[in-house]
Design goal:
Length: 203
């Protein structure tokens, strides 16, 4: 029985229509050589592979849930996505639905034993990319804190504003009015008051 497949092609710019036609021609020829039946063709025009929100790939993944076909065919891995994390999500979904992935230029076929190796490598790359991203975020926050910035945003609180907050609160002015007058958030006001209480107790 012939295998039911779908084709996925993408080009980064609208003017690259010839690229889409070339990809489709190559994939259709491959399907004919293998006696595979093409059920659907998904095409993303003028969309970067770095974007997760791509109409055709989104529809492809929706159709994967109903298993309309048994295999996804594409020219190269970069057509599916640029991020290893995004690629891993796509491949993982296909694998969970027992749908094979066939990539012409890289010779990847997840229906074969080497496909499992590809899946494992992609999973490792995805985890590495995620860890690297977290490390950069933590490093950035640490650097911001060392420069007296909280949460990566420069504080607008000055000693003069702290003094104004304490004086207004001493006169029983409400938080909302203080916030508007000083130009800071109510949370900042509470921090200033708490800090003052601690300093008074330790004095």
């Amino acid at each position: 029985m012939s295998k039911k497949v779908c084709l996925y092609v993408r080009c980064s710019q609208l003017k690259q229509v010839h690229s889409v036609e070339r990809q489709l021609t190559e994939l259709r020829q491959v399907c004919e050589n293998h006696d595979w039946v093409i059920v659907d063709e998904y095409i993303d025009y003028g969309i970067s592979g770095a974007k997760k929100d791509r109409p055709a790939i989104t529809q492809l993944l929706k159709d994967a849930h109903s298993r309309k076909w048994e295999q996804v065919c594409t020219i190269e891995l970069s057509r599916l996505g640029r991020s290893s994390a995004n690629l891993f999500q796509i491949v993982e979904l296909l694998k969970s639905k027992k749908i094979d992935l066939w990539i012409k230029n890289q010779g990847i076929d997840t229906s074969q034993i080497t496909g499992e190796l590809f899946f494992s490598i992609l999973a490792c790359l995805s985890q590495y990319e995620l860890s690297l991203c977290r490390e950069r975020i933590y490093s950035g926050l640490a650097l911001a804190r060392s420069k007296g910035r909280i949460g990566g945003r420069k504080s607008t609180l000055t000693p003069e504003k702290e003094k104004q907050i304490l004086e207004m609160r001493k006169n029983k002015v409400g938080y909302n009015k203080i916030a508007k007058a000083v130009g800071v958030g109510e949370r900042t006001i509470m921090k200033v008051l708490s800090k003052n209480v601690l300093e008074t107790q330790s004095a």
